[in-house]
Design goal:
Blueprint lengths: L3 H6 L15 H10 L2 H15 L2 H21 L5 H17 L14 E6 L7 H12 L3 E4 L8 H9 L3 E5 L6 H12 L5 E4 L1 H5 L3 H4 L4 E2 L3 H12 L2
Parallel strand pairs: 1-2, 1-3, 3-4, 4-5
C-alpha cells in the first residue's frame, strides 16, 4: 500500500523517473496527486516502451495507480479537489498512449456496448476498457453517462451486440443495476461488469445477475472473448 502521507505531500520531487523492474505505480500516483501531467506521461511512455502494449499499461500501471488514489478518497484521506486533480492528470495520460493492435483479433463485426448508469461520474475505467477492446478488434459503442436505465435494453434490442459492459464506481442501488442486467440478459446478450464498486465487493456481480466480472482490462478482454462466443 502506498504511504498516504507521502502521496498527499508529493514527497518524490518533480521529474523523478522510473528505473525499477516493477510498474511505477507509486510514482504515477504521486504525480497524479501533484497535478504533474508531464511526469505522469513520461512514466507511462517509459513503461509502454518496455511492455509495448496499451493493455499492459492500463492493467499494470494506470489502473493500480487510479485505484490507490481512489482508495485514499474513499477513506477520506484526500479531498474531492485532490481526486479531481488526479483524475485530470490520468485522463491526459490515457489520451496520449497510442493504440497497440492485438495480433489475435476478434472476428470481424464483433460489437459491444459499454455504459454506466445515470449519476455515475467515474467513467475513466470504462473509457480505458473501450480502447483496449478496440485494440482487440471490437466495434465499441460507448454510451453517454446520462443514458437512462430503460434505454439500455431497448438499444440492445436494436443493435444486437455480442456483449454489454456495465461499470460502476459507486453503486447506489443494487436492485436498479440488477433490473438493467436482467433486462439485457433476457435478450440473450451476456453482461460483463466492472469498476470500483465491484472490486470492493467480491460477490456483487453475482448479486446483480451479471454473466461475469472483469477486475481489470486484461481480465475483461479475455472474458469478453469468452462471453461473445456462439
Amino acid at each position: 500500500m502506498i504511504g498516504e502521507a507521502a502521496l498527499v505531500r508529493g514527497a518524490i520531487a518533480n521529474g523523478t523517473m522510473w528505473r525499477g523492474r516493477r510498474p511505477p505505480v507509486r510514482q504515477l500516483a504521486q504525480a497524479m496527486l501533484r497535478g504533474d501531467t508531464h511526469t505522469a506521461c513520461e512514466l507511462a511512455d517509459q513503461f509502454l516502451a518496455r511492455v509495448r502494449s496499451r493493455l499492459a499499461v492500463f492493467a499494470d500501471l494506470v489502473q493500480p495507480a487510479h485505484a490507490e488514489v481512489g482508495e485514499l478518497w474513499y477513506r477520506g484521506q484526500i479531498c474531492m479537489e485532490d481526486e479531481h486533480r488526479a483524475a485530470g492528470v490520468l485522463e491526459g495520460v490515457v489520451g496520449q498512449i497510442p493504440p497497440t493492435p492485438s495480433r489475435g483479433r476478434v472476428a470481424a463485426g464483433s460489437r459491444c456496448l459499454l455504459t454506466v448508469l445515470p449519476g455515475e461520474r467515474h467513467t475513466l475505467g470504462l473509457g480505458m476498457f473501450a480502447l483496449v477492446l478496440e485494440d482487440e478488434g471490437w466495434e465499441v459503442e460507448l454510451l453517454d453517462h446520462d443514458c437512462e436505465p430503460e434505454d439500455v435494453p431497448e438499444l440492445v434490442e436494436r443493435t444486437r451486440p455480442q456483449l454489454v459492459g456495465l461499470s460502476a464506481g459507486y453503486l447506489q442501488s443494487v436492485q436498479g443495476m440488477a433490473r438493467v442486467v436482467g433486462a439485457i440478459r433476457a435478450r440473450s446478450v451476456p453482461v460483463l461488469v466492472g469498476g470500483a464498486a465491484f472490486n470492493r465487493t467480491g460477490d456483487l456481480w453475482r448479486r446483480v445477475g451479471a454473466s461475469a466480472y472483469g477486475p481489470d482490462p486484461r481480465v475483461g478482454t479475455v472474458l469478453a472473448r469468452r462471453l461473445a462466443r456462439p
